Task: structure prediction
Amino acid sequence: MDSVNSTLTLIQGRNLSNESVMLCNPFDYPSPFEIYAVLCPAIALLTLFTNILVIVVFTKKHLLSPTSVLLIGLAVGDILAGNIISPPYIYAYGIADLGQPLPYPMCLFYDYGSILAALFHQVSVWITMALGIQRYVVVAFPIAGRRICTIKKSVLWVIVINIATLLMYSITFFTSTYESVEIDGKSLCVCKENPHFSEVVQIYSILRSVFGQLVPCAVLSVTTILLVQRLHATKNQMARIRACDNRERERKDNRSMRRTSYMVIIIVLCFLLAEIPNGCYFLFKAMRMSVLSYEADLMISTVLNVLVYAVNHINFWIYVFLSRHFRRSLKKILRLDALFQFCRKGNWKLDSHTTTYFSNSQGDPFYVKGTERLRASDLLYTTMDTCVSRSNW
Result:
């Protein structure tokens, strides 16, 4: 998320005795209406709905775990990061005249909204780092990991991360000052750099880029590689004990652990896809090493911002496709069972050889009589088509 203050336009203040003033302008992004007034708010709104479902599902008693606590914190951070800045974006790039200075106090909402969006995105970054570390500890040290990684400690980590992020970003609320001026009968906003913080802004930006983005990316890269190696080792160990009938419980626990670990790995990889280029780009800007033109700089910033929005939204679909327990709980919350129950009453045949019905067993929720098993997606489409046919009878 873009956390830099809005651009400044130098004009002659007509009501200020010809004193030069700096008026706040929103960034002149490429295709601002399509991207920042439509696309980004739309993705943020979808993230709001899907992450509310994530929170509701993971707060269920049978799914509450140290990992799910961190995933809940991640969902909340992603919701706030995307939706806090959406109203200022819609106003600045969809309602107000493009290229014109922002009126007072909309400049405050725009700049402070950008800061808060970056703050909550930073919360998501550190929670993702904690998630990667926790998953490696649980897999690499099964006995000690259960003692170290508890629900209470995960809640404590989420609280500590939020407090630390608020302290780290507190300085950004004071780096600029805002005043209201009357120009041509309009109340416009004058932006000024706070002289008390001008000397430390660059150092602060470099440290924030390093410890806020690059260090978490480095830690997650290392823990992910170690986690993959550990999962490969445990897979070989479980292959040696598959012949033992009295260790079925251990095999089930191992399969559950592996599924959760693979889900976390994919979440981390998607995170790194967005954060590594974002962190490097922000570091170059903080060190004032950018050699790009102003237009190219805004283009790269736009691409990275959209990428962050997309990664924040994609976590929900990772849970849907990789977690069977999440899908089951989500189906119950959305009342899909009623649809399936309605379709089951007819006891229809799909073809002359195979009869499909529903099972409440602990395996897949769909069961095909006989030895052949259908994919869940194929059966869902077939069942919905059958329901439509029945409604037309």
In short: Strands lie at 7-12, 20-25, 176-183, 186-193, 356-358, 366-368. Residues 193 and 304 are 26 Å apart (CA to CA). The two ends are 53 Å apart (CA to CA).
